[in-house]
Amino acid sequence: MSTSAPSLAVWKFASCDGCQLSLLNCEKELLAVADAVQIAYFPEATRGYIEGPYDISLVEGSITTGEDARRIQEVRAVSKRVITIGACATSGGIQALRNSADVRDFTEAVYAHPEYISTLERSTPISAHITVDFQLRGCPIDRAQLLEVVAAFVQGRQPRIPTYSVCVECKRRGLTCVAVAKGMACLGPVTQAGCGALCPSFDRGCYGCFGPQDSANTSSLADRLASAGMTSRDIQRLFSTYNVGSQAFGAQAQREQGGAR
Amino acid sequence: MAGVSVLDLAGLGALLDALHSRGYTVLGPTVRDGVITTGEVHTLEDLPRGVGDEQDAGHYRLRERGDDAIFGFAAPMQSAKQVFFPADELIWRGRRTPDGAFDVGHAQSDPAPVALFGVRSCDLAAVGVHDAVLDRREFVDTRYQARRDGTFVVAASCAEPAGTCFCVSMDTGPKPTGGYDIALTEILDGEHRFLAEAGTPAGEEVLAEVPAQPADYDDVAAADEVIDQARSRMGRTMRTDGLRDLLYASAQSPHWEDVANRCLACTNCTMVCPTCFCTSVEDVSDLTGDIDERHRVWDSCFSQEYSRLHTNFVRSTTAARYRQWATHKLASWQDQFGMSGCVGCGRCIAWCPAGIDITAEVAVLRGTALREAKG
């Protein structure tokens, strides 16, 4: 570790830890990461920490409590650059399902003593609270994309993170289109690339982990799924996963719930 | 018939052997993961014997034909595009030297010569389009040229057009008329055989090594019948008279918005199109910044980023992007390269997850233009 290397902090909010684990899972690149940045605060990896301010903060998780809403302001105050990592931090995560329901119904269904639970009505992305310098998508994030973003910030250049659809990656790999050739429900056409078309390569439709692509036409895809026999309820579920908090997926889920067809 | 011979199945196998013995990597139709697509062909067993397909807008399925046909299907999922024009091409790799300079090594392409086997006339026409675009203009794509040089082509007439095919409209099929070393027409009536025509001296030389009979009148008549049958069973048509002017005159048509309501802007049509050649250049550096690479990757006019100039998007709406694609393919391509950018293979129709059909959209534009002309 070089002391002139930029310092890196990793913060956790409401999340499963999978995205920070992607950093630890970098394996052979991990030593290069440790050379390129000074890992100053990363409780999941080490108890030792260096006081801020930090050059780069990676933020995982969404804001779901009043305490977190206060803490994220502190993170911003001690960070030169804030990069959110993962679907929770960039769109609110699976826990944003509460946004279109009454959160008390969930707490009463899940907890023996819901009166002990102190939580906000909505799960919101980090960008709803502070200025964010870059948002890295995915549930979880892609390791290669994380390394690209860290390298870009260390080198002071634009990260090369495409915003087009998963179909681009699918076709570049020469994979069979599971929607056209197998009739599977696949969110690939409306989902941002980044995973390398992982699910289609294993004969499954895309689940939309990377959120909407830059020109997502969710209503057209939903029309196709409906004309292939899928019910509004099932289409709603398809859009109601890790990125239900994104505008495009959330709005389509709402339309299906509203019985648009 | 002079220069025309007839092979049986064993003769077709011998043709593959002759290509392999000349050192070619033979690429042809193979069944993989529910589709017929391009793969390496070692023996007859690698070819899709008895396998057909059904294709319609946004729909592709394999089917059992119930016979022994080797070429009993329409356009495979992939054309020959990626054989000569790969989806990801390394242009150069640079390494920082101890004195802080960059040592740039240009990626050497030294590919084994390729024999295309069973390529359809629509796809062969598309290879011709790429030759014109990439290999015969002022600045030559040297990597494309290196891959194309020394290619051997065994074309196959199309006997089973799909619901998405319109090569007859675009005058590219179903029988190849050039650009091949050997052209085959499969005959299933009576004895299962292949009419083989040499198109070049190299093709004649290879055919001379393969056990074959000279073709007689009945063989030629049977092959002509196969072509006539295919010609009469095109799944789609596109009127091409005045097509270029129609597209230009339709620039402000409200119909582009109608298409955009359905278009997913997913890029599939451009990825599967055998003539689409848009790429982006991407620079990649590792964490240390000591190793950098420049890649050329397939891109698409349906991607928003692709139309970014400085800080703005030239084509910010999907309507503008579909119009750009269709107008380039069918109209401005003619001005630019003196040919159509569409060969009628129908892949953009079959592989569109929204089932958008370029022949239907053009027919709407034509109908609108006719109504307006009548006033």
Overview of the structural elements:
- The complex is a heterodimer of chains A (261) and B (375).
- Chain A has 2 domains: 7-155, NADH:ubiquinone oxidoreductase-like, 20kDa subunit (Rossmann fold, 3-Layer(aba) Sandwich), CATH 3.40.50; 166-257, no CATH class.
- Chain A contains 12 helices and 5 strands.
- Chain A has helices at 18-24, 30-36, 66-77, 87-91, 103-110, 143-155, 166-172, 178-182, 198-201, 218-227, 232-239, 247-257; strands at 7-12, 38-41, 54-60, 79-85, 134-136.
- In chain A, α3 (66-77) links the parallel β3 (54-60) and β4 (79-85).
- The mean pLDDT of chain A is 95.
- Chain B is α+β, with helices and mostly antiparallel strands and 375 residues long.
- In chain B, β6 (88-96) and β7 form a beta hairpin.
- In chain B, α8 (243-249) runs antiparallel to α11 (318-337).
- Chains A and B meet through α2, α6, α7, α8 and α10 of A and β5, α9, α10 and β13 of B.
